[in-house]
Write a structure and sequence with these properties.
Elements lengths: L1 H18 L20 E4 L5 E6 L5 E8 L13 H11 L7 H10 L3 E6 L4 E8 L3 H13 L5 H16 L5 H14 L11 H5 L3 H11 L5 E7 L3 H12 L22 E6 L5 E9 L1 E2 L5 H12 L5 H9 L5 E9 L3 E11 L3 H17 L4 H15 L6 H14 L5 H11 L2 H11 L6 E6 L1 H4 L9 E3 L18 H15 L9 E11 L2 E12 L4 E8 L2 E8 L2 E6 L2 E4 L2 H12 L2 H6 L5 E10 L2 E9 L3 E7 L5 E10 L4 E15 L2 E11 L2 E13 L2
Parallel strand pairs: 2-6, 7-12, 7-13, 9-10
Antiparallel strand pairs: 1-2, 3-5, 3-6, 4-5, 8-11, 8-12, 10-11, 14-15, 14-26, 15-16, 16-17, 17-18, 18-19, 20-21, 21-22, 22-23, 23-24, 24-25, 25-26
Length: 688
């Protein structure tokens, strides 16, 4: 018995080891035919088209409406209109079912309802239990037909959109994909249009009502229903629910042509808070209608298809140059897609990784792939396609999408047959015909200091500006007297920093009381700030624990509980601006600044002299006429989260001079007339 147990144990140890195979040793069986469910199609007199699929596995019914609309149709000056309209249709409810009532109704029935508008289509969905379908279908149609567009929900959607704008430069890859699309389609193209603070501010409720009324009509609507129902009964319910929709006019979606000349460019986005490079390179792609589309997909899989792709095997595995590498040959239905190859690599190996990728593209053109490589690629690709049709719901959605885009109902089967028919010669032919490695555009998002001059080998480096435009100010600027402004600036500077002072970084220890929604919050702070280069190291004791912040070169890091993370631009920029408009920075850099005298102003019985100072930021100081010390500072500050400008005013008092530098030991800051924070300085000194 012991020998038998030992033998069995040894077999169990050996079998798993002998069963393991490499990815290229796996034999894939022939793909089984996909059994398509029966789809019932019918159209109402007003133009709504329906696709019905019965699925009795669960007592659920899902409704998906596709609407012929999209961001493509919004004016450039109101970019964001379509997306915000799509959000508010659902979030704002209808006149019959206001938002709060609608939310409660859906929650009590465990139902879900959503609306969305993307680039070239809109959608609305209802997921509901079978027993609640008859009650909630009329609600769904009413929300689509009669949205209320309440002002509070519009403002909330605008604020959320502006918050997203403020974060759009946070992720390295997001910046890379966006800016590479700009290179391919052009900055002013509808295909790369950006929603900005100003365009969101241009959007009115009337714009949203008009947008909805123009496009949410029966002739623009295709509806798919799948679930536990009887088809004949469902048809009658749909006629009653959707029959009242106005027919309207079918939207003509016009996709502008793309004029692309295959330039060779090298482009760079400097992101100082990263230690690796995100690289995108390529050129324009193609159209879905191209007869070579299947062969191009096989070619792409050979080159960039996951673990077995050549890029992964060579650039990542063999050369060790990339954390990730891949790409795609994009082919859209209505306008050309993008051919792009991407990698994430160390800053020091940026050019080496680019060269390795281009080498693999050229090798694909010059050397035929092997039969084994072709078969493996086709098998993997064809087997992966099965997951697009592993449920009746996915099959129905594919049918609706094909109908919407004008593709054949048999588009999937045609793709499968095209892939099966692709040969070694086809792969090399399309690689030669459609890929142009000598005429690629290269975009690198990385750290300029770490990358150095590696990119210059590819030509003149175009530095891409990704700064987010602020909305224009409503304030009218009155011109002042430059000569008197210079005199008052000189007096202020001498009052803040005594002439002959050997200036260095300044250490400040203080207690800051911030006004929050939860009440006052006290923070103990120590900071060492260098106003020569606007760098600062700060340690703050907060109710949440100790926070360390480091600001330099316009960026920064924040550490809390032993974890360090990059400081988002929407946090780093205000702190940097705070340093730039500080009276010490102004006194130190007075010769590089412009000042205008705006006259005198009496505040709380005190007559003050007013100067406006312009540099990287603009700030207005109200000075004590006798001493020249600042009594108040006024400035307009952009809140990136809300996309709105706030009017801030700081009031200075209790001045102390240490090491030749004067500091207000009490500063009270007001934002839009409300007290926001009070700083009480305990000590300050000049560091060696």
């Amino acid at each position: 018995m012991k020998r038998l147990l030992l033998f069995t144990f040894m077999v169990l140890l050996v079998l798993p080891l002998s069963a393991q195979k490499r990815y290229d040793e796996i034999e894939y069986p022939e793909m089984n035919p996909i059994n398509m469910p029966e789809v019932e199609e019918f159209t109402l007199d007003n133009g709504v088209t329906f696709f019905l699929v019965e699925d009795h596995e669960l007592p659920l019914i899902n409704v998906r409406a596709t609407i012929r609309t999209g961001e493509l149709l919004e004016p450039a000056s109101k970019a964001g209109l379509a997306s915000i309209t799509g959000d508010v249709i659902r979030e704002g409810g209808s006149e019959n079912y206001p938002a709060d009532e609608l939310n409660a109704l859906l929650e009590n029935r465990a139902a879900n309802m959503s609306t969305f508008i993307g680039f070239n289509s809109g959608s609305a969905q209802l997921n509901v239990l079978k027993e609640d379908f008859d009650d909630l279908l009329p609600v769904f149609v009413d929300v689509l037909q009669n949205p209320a567009f309440p002002e509070d929900k519009i403002e909330l959607a605008k604020t959320q959109t502006k918050s997203a704008i403020s974060r759009r430069n946070d992720e390295q890859s997001q910046v890379g994909f966006r800016e590479f699309s700009n290179l391919i389609y052009g900055d002013n193209s509808v295909y790369t249009r950006q929603t900005e603070y100003a365009t969101v501010d241009n959007i009115t409720r009337e714009d949203m009502v008009d947008f909805h009324d123009n496009y949410f009509v029966a002739n623009n609507m295709t509806v798919g229903i799948i679930g536990d129902f009887d088809t004949d009964e469902m048809k009658q319910k749909l006629r009653e629910a959707f029959g009242s929709l106005p027919a309207g006019k079918e939207t003509n979606m016009v996709f502008p042509e793309v004029d692309y000349e295959y330039p060779s460019t090298i482009n760079f986005v400097n992101k100082e808070n990263v230690n690796q490079s995100f690289v995108v390179l390529g050129h324009i792609g193609g159209l879905r209608e191209n007869p070579d589309y299947p062969a191009l997909q096989v070619m792409n899989e050979v080159l960039a298809g996951g673990f077995s792709g050549r890029l992964f095997q060579e650039v990542r595995t063999n050369l060790g140059l990339a954390y990730s590498v891949g790409g795609s040959y994009g082919a859209n239905v209505n306008y050309p897609g993008v051919f792009r190859l991407i990698t994430m690599t160390k800053s020091s190996t940026t050019a080496e990784a680019i060269d390795a990728i281009l080498k693999e593209v050229k090798r694909l053109q010059e050397e035929p792939i092997t039969q084994e490589e072709l078969e493996l690629t086709k098998d993997q690709f064809l087997n992966s396609l099965v997951f697009r049709y592993d449920s009746k719901s996915k099959i129905l959605n594919e049918r609706i999408d094909n109908e919407y885009l004008g593709l054949s109902p048999d588009a999937f089967d045609e793709l499968v047959e095209g892939i099966k028919a692709t040969t070694i010669e086809d792969v090399q032919r399309v690689a030669r015909e459609y890929l142009k490695p000598e005429q690629v555009q290269i975009l690198v998002v990385g750290n300029e200091d770490e990358i150095g001059d590696q990119l210059q080998k590819y030509g003149n480096v175009n530095k891409v500006d990704i700064s987010i435009p602020e909305p224009p100010s409503d304030e009218e600027e009155v011109a002042g007297d430059a000569a008197q402004g210079g005199e008052w600036l000189e007096k202020m500077a001498d009052a803040v920093i005594e002439p002959g002072t050997d200036m260095g970084p300044i250490f400040v220890e203080s207690v800051i009381t911030q006004q929050t929604q939860m009440g006052p919050m006290e923070i103990t702070s120590t900071a060492i700030t260098n106003y020569d280069d606007y760098s600062s190291e700060r340690t703050m004791q907060t109710p949440q624990g100790e926070i360390q912040m480091k600001i330099e070169n316009g960026g920064g890091t924040m550490s809390m509980m032993g974890q360090e993370r990059p400081l988002p631009p929407q946090m780093a920029t205000p702190v940097t601006n705070e340093m730039k408009r500080n009276y010490i920075a102004i006194a130190l850099n007075k010769d590089e600044l412009e000042a205008e005298y705006l006259g005198s102003e009496t505040v709380d019985g005190e007559e003050l002299e007013v100067i406006r100072i312009k540099g990287d930021v603009t700030v207005t100081y109200l000075l004590d006429a006798e001493s020249g010390l600042p009594a108040r500072a006024r400035y307009s500050e952009m809140n990136p989260q809300t996309g709105q400008r706030s009017q801030a005013e700081s009031v200075f008092s209790d001045w102390e001079v240490v090491d030749g530098v004067a500091l207000a030991y009490t500063t009270v800051t007001y934002v839009d007339g409300e007290e926001a924070a009070t700083q009480k300085v305990e000590s300050h000194s000049i560091e060696d």
